[in-house]
Amino acid sequence: MSTELKTEVEFNKVIRERHSVRKYDPSWKISEEEIKEILGEAVLAPSSSNLQPWRFIVITDQELKAQLLPIANNQQQTVEASAVIAVLGDSEAYRNAEAIYEYAEAAGYVTPEVGAAMAKRSRDGYSSMPVEVLNNIARVDGGLVSMQLMLAAKAKGYDTVPMGGFNPDGFRALFQIPERYTTVMLIALGKAAVEGRPTVRLPLEQVTHWNGFQG
């Protein structure tokens, strides 16, 4: 079964109705075009110096998902969801600085001189950082794009669940991930078979501090 929902929902409704869903309709197949639309909205997320270190592996092949299942601690949504999207972070994203500013120049956002200077600043600055710092930056940016992906999916009528419980070494081996990429999370994407369980949040007053921190 393959149907495009094409549902657009008001943002305040999206953020209130998005819940982590773990049971999916295995017969529902999301089209490649819709997945591309969701990812296209996700990558509008901000990133450090706009270096966009996120990389995605979209897993729709059922045999491949079956191989991923034990790596993902046998979480059944791995094989029942329409797709599993692996979010990676590139610790060497600064290598793309020139290309990014060439796109910015083509769009008329920067002059060639400004673009070249900003690209050089990014490459010089980030390339001198320790790899663990770069991985931390990539993981933060990966979290930003992941949340935006999940909201974009919900706005189209689909559901998701972020999956941090997986074996990163096993995942790297299965997909032959180069060392420069850090694993951020897996995201199951599909049509819910059972609605996500509502959850509560701590009172805002308990998690917010003004002009200082009182632990």
From TrEMBL:
Name the record gives this protein: Nitroreductase family protein
Domain of life of the source: Bacteria
Family: Belongs to the nitroreductase family.
Residues in Nitroreductase domain copies: 15-191
PANTHER family named among the record's database cross-references: NAD(P)H NITROREDUCTASE YDGI-RELATED (PTHR43673), NAD(P)H NITROREDUCTASE YODC-RELATED (PTHR43673:SF3)
Organism listed in the record: Paenibacillus borealis
Keywords assigned: Oxidoreductase
